[in-house]
Write a structure and sequence with these properties.
Length: 486
């Protein structure tokens, strides 16, 4: 029994044959995988930087630490033990292979890491292919597959080294596996969701949703095998925490406890945040929601899983689209399935109905082309990263003072390959360091920042690096060489 709606018993046999033929027509899985990988190549090469600090300081820097032993910023997450070492360990493995293969330097190593992640992200492509197959689309199957696998969300999440991005692909892979019966499929789905839990505990909610769906559709044996797969990876996480933090399942327990108690510290977002985002990815407001509802009828259990995750995140004060990317990827899939179904239902109609179906595809193409472009060539935090890269190439640097900047502005440990120590100070602290003879050769400040140094110290501009978006000019980082006046 599939987890999809069955066709009406009264449906003519010839119509059933047409539907069956349409399900197997269009793109084959190998061709879809090739297209999806090709769509990720620009992001592998050029999607650099990090859009949120956690990617750098919670995942990439700890991974680099595992490889080299280099110190990294001890944020409160690492001090309190609310981060798992599982995903940093995975990235560390990629970095080790990159170095073994001769990749040198931060940017080259990251291209290799993104390549590895992109290959693994094809599991999500397979998952979507299975979900579309389960939806039994009569038309537009190719368009649905391309939109659902090559949109900006899955492209970006497919190549960036952070736990939530990696988890997103695993969740979709698991949903696709569980769309059809089979013990092996259920076991692999459970292992995938269990690993997703290791990378991001909240995504374990999808495991609960899949289990409930299996029981409700009388696939109890599959549900039990699925739960066993999840349990294996939960035990792995518990063992890793026992070794690293000293207690079983320390990181997910502390993670949940911390977020329930302190998410309001970063809150203030509108209660309509997730609704607005859903409406963006299901365009045309009520019409888009209609398409979403139509698609959800084809895959009701998938819609249930996506909705549960959205509702759970709605409870917390802190809200961000990046917290619910698996649900958003599923919204895009369900919406596109709904548009394809609406085409069948409305193709005999004229006027408004056909206009909305056609225009919906056009609007989706424009929206997702823009997101795809942004995901493929983005360079968030460019000024921080380029500053760190440049400082690492200065052979005579003896000490670097980030004046008026914090460690979070440094670009992290991974990008800085120099040996000179970095200090984070204000103006008075910098002057005091110079007075006591601390070796400082370079100073980093934001542009348009004044700094008065006592004689005989002078600053000479060495390099400047701009942010991608910098209308105020305040996000430009300036590197000065500190020297004594003659």
């Amino acid at each position: 029994m599939l987890l999809t709606d069955s066709p009406p018993i009264s449906q003519p046999v010839c119509s059933e044959r047409r539907v069956a033929s349409s399900i197997t027509s269009g793109l084959s899985l190998p061709i879809l995988l090739v297209i999806a990988f090709a769509a990720r190549v620009p992001a592998i090469l050029w999607s650099r930087g990090y859009t949120f600090f956690d990617e750098q300081f919670q995942y990439l820097d700890p991974a680099y630490h595992l490889v080299t032993g280099a110190p990294f910023l001890q944020t409160h997450e690492w001090v309190n033990g609310i981060r798992s070492w599982v995903f940093p360990g995975i990235v560390a493995g990629f970095l080790e292979v990159a170095r073994f293969c001769g990749f040198e330097g931060p940017e080259s190593e990251l291209i290799f890491v993104r390549l590895c992640l992109a290959v693994i992200s094809l599991l999500a492509v397979y998952g979507i292919w299975e979900l579309v197959r389960a939806a039994k689309l009569e038309t537009h199957r190719t368009a649905v597959l391309i939109l659902a696998t090559c949109n900006g969300i899955l492209v970006y999440q497919g190549v960036h080294p952070n736990g939530p991005a990696f988890s997103c692909g695993l969740v979709i892979f698991a949903l696709g596996l569980f769309a059809f019966p089979g013990r092996l499929r259920a076991l692999l789905a459970g292992l995938a969701v269990g690993l997703a839990f290791c990378c991001r505990p909240q995504d374990g909610l999808f495991g609960a949703s899949i289990f409930v769906a299996g029981v409700l559709t009388k696939r109890t044996a599959d549900a039990i095998v699925f739960a066993a797969g999840c349990t294996v990876m939960i035990l792995v996480q518990g063992w890793v925490d026992l070794v690293t933090w000293g207690s079983f399942l320390h990181s997910p327990i502390e993670y949940v406890r911390f977020n329930l108690a302190h998410s309001s510290n970063w809150g203030g977002q509108s209660i309509f945040t997730y609704l607005v985002v859903v409406l963006i990815f299901a365009p045309f407001a009520h019409t888009g929601l209609r398409y979403l509802a139509i698609g959800s009828k084809r895959l009701p259990w998938v819609a249930f899983a996506a909705a549960i995750a959205l509702v759970a995140h709605q409870i917390l004060d802190r809200k961000s689209p990046r917290f619910v990317t698996p649900s958003l990827a599923l919204v895009i899939l369900l919406w596109s399935i709904g548009v394809a179904r609406a085409h069948v239902q409305d193709m005999t109609k004229r006027g408004v109905a056909r206009f909305f179906v056609t225009t919906s595809w056009i609007l989706a193409a424009i929206l997702h082309a823009g997101l795809f472009f942004a995901a493929s060539i983005s360079y968030a935090s460019r000024q921080r990263i380029q500053t760190a890269l440049h400082l690492g190439t200065i052979p005579d640097a003896t000490g670097i003072a980030y004046c008026g900047l914090s460690p979070i502005d440094s670009g992290g440990a991974f990008y800085y390959r120099g040996t000179a120590p970095r200090h984070y100070v204000d103006e008075s602290e910098l002057v005091a360091m110079l007075d006591v003879g601390t070796e400082i050769s370079h100073v980093v400040m934001r542009a348009k920042t004044s700094l008065e140094l006592p004689p005989p110290w002078q600053l000479a501009t060495d390099a400047e690096f701009d942010a991608v978006w910098n209308p105020s000019g305040r996000q430009t980082y300036v590197i000065y060489r500190l020297r004594r006046a003659e």
